[in-house]
């Protein structure tokens, strides 16, 4: 059973690429990857609105706490073999504060989108 659940927009090329990097860099049971617009996500996590998980990745911790976007970064990194050292760095409030507008810009513009479908997302 996976330690945490990472909810992502599976129609976004950038999101899928990020999930693939996370998958390759972590142990097989570190993450469960769940598409935002899946019936499974809606059934298991109805408290996470579709609009919210289309705007930023959502990480659901074993405690049930949900971290989104930049705030999920430290927890994601500490579960990745190669990037574990980045977890504490991304946990520094000033670093997260500085990265927030970068994440928002990339998420809003879907810089590596496969086609126009994800550009039209909220």
- The N- and C-terminal alpha carbons lie at a distance of 32 Å
Strands of the biggest beta sheet: in what spatial order?
A: 2-1-3-4
- Bin the strand percentage: 5-15%
Structural class, from helix and strand content?
A: alpha+beta
Sheet with the most strands, sense and barrel status? 4 strands, mixed
The unreliable regions are none
Give me the Rg, rounded.
14 Å
Overall mean confidence score, pLDDT: 86
Please sum up the structure shown.
By secondary structure, this protein is of the alpha+beta class.
Description:
The chain has helices at 13-25, 39-44, 50-55, 73-77, 86-90, 93-109, and strands spanning 4-8, 31-35, 58-60, 66-68. The protein is of the alpha+beta class and 122 residues long. A four-stranded mixed β-sheet has the order 2-1-3-4. Strand 1, helix 1 (13-25) and strand 2 form a beta-alpha-beta unit. The model has no long low-confidence stretch (mean pLDDT 86).
How does the SSE layout of this entry go?
Elements: E1 4-8, H1 13-25, E2 31-35, H2 39-44, H3 50-55, E3 58-60, E4 66-68, H4 73-77, H5 86-90, H6 93-109
Parallel strand pairs: 1-2
Antiparallel strand pairs: 1-3, 3-4
């Amino acid at each position: 059973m996976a330690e945490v659940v990472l909810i992502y927009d599976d129609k976004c090329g950038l999101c899928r690429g990020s999930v693939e990097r996370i998958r390759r860099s972590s142990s097989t049971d570190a993450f469960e990857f769940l598409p935002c617009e899946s019936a499974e996500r809606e059934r298991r996590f109805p408290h996470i609105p579709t609009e919210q998980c289309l705007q930023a990745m959502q990480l659901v911790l074993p405690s049930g706490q949900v971290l989104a976007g930049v705030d999920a970064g430290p927890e994601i990194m500490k579960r990745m073999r190669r990037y574990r050292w980045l977890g504490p760095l991304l946990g520094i409030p000033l670093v997260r504060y500085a990265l927030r507008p970068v994440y928002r810009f990339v998420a809003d513009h879907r810089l590596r989108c496969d086609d126009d479908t994800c550009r039209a997302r909220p």
